[in-house]
Amino acid sequence: MAQTCLRGRILAFHAEPQSPDDDSAHSYIEDGALLIENGLIIARGDFADLETQLACDCAIVDHRPCLLMPGFIDTHLHFPQVQVIASWGAQLLDWLENYTFPAEARYSDAAHAERMAVHFFDELLSQGTTTTVAYGSAHKTSADAYFAEAARRNMRVIGGKTMMDRNAPPEASDTAQSGYDDTKALIADWHGKGRALYAITPRFAITSSPEQLEAAGALAREHPDCFIQTHLDENLEEIRTTKALYPDAPDYLGVYEHYGLLGPKTLLGHCLHMRPREIGVMIETGSKPVFCPTSNLFLGSGLFDYEGLRARGAKCAIATDIGGGTSYSMLQTLNEGYKVLALKDGQKLHPYRAFYWMTLGNAVALGLEDKIGTLNVGSEADVVVLDSTATPAMALRMETCKTLAEELFILQIMADDRSVTQTYVAGEPMKKPR
Ligand code: GUN
Ligand code: ZN
To answer: What pLDDT digit, counting tens, does each position of 263-283 carry?
Structure first.
């Protein structure tokens, strides 16, 4: 199998940076090389050292002076909301009803779902995102289209068909039984096939009957190696409605707890208005809160307490939440995340922590750090190439940049897909020219 060697400035994290001046959590190689074979990284080091080991047919791609980093990981987004992004709505529940459910209803049409899947992954790869954790619509066709398109691109993705059997139009819904049966079939077809993994996906308590959450709990017991994803404590009206629908639950998280849906592989989108008991249960079960800053701003949902949850031991993930979220870019997600956290008691998202978060941090939240997020030897060769001078304004700002942390902060605040010069998936260049 042919080797590829990517040359550039290599940056990767091996631990969570503990403070702004913590230089011990990352490795940086000024003139580095990543050697790739069979989709895996087989060596990483100084170009001068590795050059002598290259096979004679090895293709060298010189990306200097760009940065090579692990591909970005987006841990919460909605595949059938590519035509929902930027839709007017007062707040969560009416936005779902007026825009989201009608758009998702169209994904019963396999041809529509397949066309949208192409655009979805084209866009994400152009933004440097190589792993997605996505919700489908309630239709099996949506998850089939998502996984099939990801498989064509050999991407490591997680996803699932949404389970939702009430409080939504029938054409956007399933039933407790069909949700169970379709999920079962999708797990058989896709979980562990190539790089795909399945997430059992009850949308949230409002749109699932007790019978459906029972079925989701049964699926979780029958498939403990699958992920579970849902939403929690995003919006005050959502919390009130949940309380009315599940009056016996101690709180919102108590609903999911009751049906056996919590654990280290459970991803809880938003987690903005949590009660102390909920935080305790989330930590005890190892469930992961997912911060979605652009969505939280767009829908006016609230401010995520990153430092508070981290101090309690939560392994937080970060995500775009397309289409409540307003940008496909994980870089722009970090930009808005920086501002959201500044408003939450002056929390500061330092660039080391930010770049750790969307690579190794998200991989740790998914339990996939042996496969993605590090550029370690033996891991999968998902790599993003970043140009810190991609726009005239960035180039001008970079003239005065003195440190790596400063450069990363410029990328965090100013960059988007224009800074992503290439995205490699399992060693293959995947970014299409615009
Ligand atoms: N809660 C339940 N469904 C959704 C969704 O599609 N987007 C957001 N932001 N919150 C949700
Ligand atoms: Zn969501």
So the answer is: 999 999 999 999 999 999 999
